[in-house]
Amino acid sequence: MRAYNFCAGPAALPTAVLEKAQAEMLNWHGKGLSIMEMSHRSKDYVAVAEKAEADLRKLMNIPENYKVLFLQGGASLQFSAIPLNLLGKNSKADYIHTGIWSEKATKEAKRYGDINVIEAGTTVDGKMAISDQSTWNLSDDAAYVHYADNETIGGIQFANIPVTDKPLVADFSSSILSAPLDVSKFGLIYAGAQKNIGPAGLTLVIVREDLLDQSKAEIPSILKYADQAKNDSMVNTPSTYAWYLSGLVFEWLLEQGGVDAIYKANMEKAELLYGYIDSSDFYANPIAKPNRSIMNVPFTLANPELEKQFLKEAEENHLLNLAGHRSVGGMRASIYNAVPLEGVQALVKFMDDFAKRNA
Ligand SMILES: *Cc1c(COP(=O)(O)O)cnc(C)c1O
Question: Which of 219, 286, 302, 308 is 20 to 30 A (C-alpha) from 53?
């Protein structure tokens, strides 16, 4: 049987997608070979790649003046690629700090530019929250404003898109395609695929065309958005299998009813889990309600000594990968698009049973 997988990343994929990939593995569309064994420049593969982009454009309603790039190196390489691409004319940028990933992005950007860090972490009634934008010191002359929509480790998410007249650059690694999003509000959106899209090895960059001419001269061409855009993300061999499999996930999302439908399902899952945690004295979540992530739900046990036992019994109940990030401890359930409601129901049932036996 397939277990319920709450891993933060690489994360659960829809079973139907894996079955389709399995069925096509040895002999893709009767061609006598696997898609993995095909040239990325072949007519067949290019059609797969183009279909994936078209489906993503449909899902996210991406305006025509944006390029969609299918790159490698993970979100972490974008921490460098973004300043290298966008700080060539103006070396100033604002970085909003809300957790570990936005901090890592800032650390890399500082190697390339003059970075103004905005500390946006605060507490409300003892819970962690993101401060109101009116308290931020945004620069008048930044080339862009960067933030991480959803801090995967802390489980803290922006309730609103920040408002700025500068290009907004956002890390959506763990929240892309989880909820409707107005792409036109952004200069650039990026996301590693292995959370809410597909397998590791693929990174999406959605970038407004007018930002393609601001790169630093020394940028490697693999990292240069203008070169990748001109070459349909094939300056060199792309991550062909991850691109193909992500395309299957996009088809699956469209079959589910698109982003509006998956958002509804995600809210139902998140409300069920947070609702249970809030109703219990045994479990707690450290984030203020407006900033709770709908994708990554950290929680603690009243008695931390029971954590090992909790994880062991969860695994015996086919509920996998519930340990929190090594830097913060506690528990974390990642409930991405591919985790079904039944998985969250099974988790809540197990948590309740465990609490009753150990209270
Ligand atoms: C996982 C994650 C990253 C890092 O992704 P890699 O693909 O491993 O580089 C960056 N930002 C966020 C928000 C993430 O969740």
Answer: 219
pLDDT digits (tens, 9 = 90+) for 108-146: 999 999 999 999 999 999 999 999 999 999 999 999 999
**pLDDT value at position 327?**
85
Residue 195 Cβ < 6 Å to ligand 1: yes
pTM of the model: 0.98
Residues 118-155 as b/e (b if ≥16 CB within 10 A, e otherwise) read bebbeeeeebbbbbeeeebebbeebbbbbbbbbbbbbb
Q: Which ligand 1 atom is the nearest neighbour of the CA of 200?
A: 7
Mutate to test the pocket of ligand 1, among 97, 108, 174 (most ligand atoms within 8 A of CB): 174
Ligand 1 neighbourhood includes 72 CB (under 6 angstroms): no
Quote the pLDDT of residue 359.
86
CB burial of residue 242 (10 Å; 0-12, 13-18, 19+): buried
Query: Is the CB of 198 inside a 6 Å radius of any atom of ligand 1?
Result: no
Check if 240 has its Cβ closer than 6 Å to any atom of ligand 1. no
Residue spans of the chain under pLDDT 50: none
